[in-house]
From TrEMBL:
It comes from Plutella xylostella. This is Rabenosyn-5. InterPro entries: Rab4/Rab5_effector, Rbsn_Rab-bd, Rbsn_Rab-bd_sf, Znf_C2H2_type, Znf_FYVE, Znf_FYVE-rel, Znf_FYVE_PHD, Znf_RING/FYVE/PHD. CDD domains: FYVE_RBNS5. Residues 360-395 are annotated as: Disordered. The keyword Metal-binding applies.
Length: 444
């Protein structure tokens, strides 16, 4: 028993001959083949033992894996059988929309109320501001009470102490105290435009805003006023489509009287009148063509503006484009055809001949009336002709006619044909008056 206890027990991959521990089956096999070649039966038995052991180990692993897979598959089948197409019910829910709206409305009301108070104070400061700079500080203190400077030792914004170099200043809208570095200045012109809609807001300040030309404000008041200013600008601003549509409507409003004037000028040419000439009508036609081109470009710009396909805005833009194209085709491109120079000359010649016949008829009637009266009418007629010839250069009617002709020439250059028509009518009246004056002189 004692000898058996004292005998050492060895474990591992031991060589059966030399009892050496080879640590692995491969090393044991190579060791036995190299050192104990004479013991082939023992080597064969070792190989058989290792092969059987390997097979047993591999078979056990495969069986374990197969058993595990079968178990998981069975569990999944059980889960599916346990929940056959079960629909999950909706649990308890609660909407927080009303709470969010209440919080938002409270904050909006607080900021809106505070901003309105600041605007009321701003109105009183700007509208009743005295012209003298010496009285301005007293006026600002009367509108907004200022905080006592002895109660504040540090700037509430930057937390720096006030001293001789860092003086105390007051916000003109809330009366709080702050230093110069933390002050912000609002331009007086911008302030006037905010409280008075009739005053146009400046696009950009022409000079640096200081205490002399602005109001000193704290950061909180300045941000509220600036936010209100941005809201006003966004409400007054117009989109690209609206701006283009207004411009297109303005061109259409200009085109309507231009087309009417063109028709009037054409009719005047067909009637043989000398108020307008062919170059005037061609200039008016070119002006109408430019208006049509502008309307077409603006309508294309409106139709090409970005919008969601199939939306109401896209349909509206397409309708505006179609209406503009129809307006151009029906009103601006279907103008009356102009007469040729030959036709104009023929009509004017006929009109001139009719006028000459009428003048000759009136002259013969005047001579018959003059011959029927007794006395030395012929001598008086000769004297009147001499007097009229002597006084033609000093006749105010002729001077006025020359002035009107100059006005007509300037109006033609500027394509103001309505003024040309009015001036031509005045010139005709003066011509008739001059002819009547000459005829009366002949009769006298």
């Amino acid at each position: 028993m004692a000898a058996a206890r004292d005998e050492q027990i060895l474990e591992g991959f031991l060589c059966p001959i030399c009892k050496a521990d080879l640590k692995s089956a491969t090393q044991l096999t190579s060791h036995f083949e190299s050192l104990h070649q004479q013991e082939q039966d023992v080597l064969k038995s070792l190989k058989d033992i290792f092969g059987k052991a390997k097979k047993i180990i591999l078979n056990n692993d495969e069986s374990d894996l197969k058993e595990t897979f079968d178990r998981a598959l069975k569990f999944s089948y059980q889960e599916r059988a346990y929940y056959p197409e079960e629909v999950q019910t909706v649990g308890l829910s609660r909407s927080s929309t009303d709470y969010f709206k209440a919080v938002r409305s409270a904050r909006r009301e607080r900021y809106a109320t505070e901003t309105n108070k600041l605007l009321i104070r701003l109105d009183k400061l700007v509208c009743n501001m005295p012209p003298e700079p010496s009285q301005r500080k007293q006026h600002e203190q009367e509108v907004v009470p200022w905080l006592d400077g002895g109660l504040v030792k540090l700037c509430p914004n930057c937390a720096k102490a006030f001293n001789l170099t860092r003086r105390k200043h007051h916000c003109r809208l809330c009366g709080s105290i702050l230093c110069h570095d933390c002050s912000m200045f609002l331009d007086l012109n911008i302030a006037r435009s905010m409280v008075d809609p009739s005053v146009a807001a400046p696009s950009a300040p022409e000079h640096e805003v200081t205490e002399k030309n602005g109001l000193r404000l704290c950061e909180h008041c300045y941000n509220l006023i600036d936010l209100r200013k941005q809201v006003q600008e966004s409400r007054n601003s117009k989109s690209i489509v609206v701006t283009a549509y207004e411009q297109m409507r303005s061109l259409m409003d200009q085109a309507e009287p231009a087309v009417a004037m063109y028709e009037k000028m054409c009719q005047s040419l067909f009637d043989g009148e000398t108020t307008y000439n062919l170059s005037d009508v061609n200039a008016m036609r070119g002006r109408i063509g430019k208006l049509a081109e502008g309307i077409d470009l603006l309508s294309k710009q409106i139709a090409g503006a970005p919008s969601a396909p199939g939306s109401r805005g896209a349909k509206l833009q397409a309708s505006i484009r179609a209406a503009a194209a129809h307006y151009i085709k029906e009103n601006l491109l279907s103008l009356r055809k102009l007469p040729t120079e030959t036709q104009i000359d023929e009509v004017r010649q006929q009109r001139y001949e009719r006028a000459q016949k009428q003048i000759e008829k009136e002259r013969m009637q005047a001579e018959r009336d003059r011959n029927s009266t007794p006395g030395t009418s012929s001598n008086r007629g000769n004297e009147s002709l001499e007097n009229s010839a002597n006084h033609d250069d000093d006749n105010p009617i002729l001077e006025q006619m020359n002035i009107i002709r100059g006005y007509i020439k300037e109006a033609r250059k500027e394509l103001k044909f309505e003024e040309v028509a009015i001036l031509e009518a005045n010139l005709k009246e003066l011509k008739k008056e001059y002819q009547f004056q000459m005829l009366s002189n002949k009769m006298n």
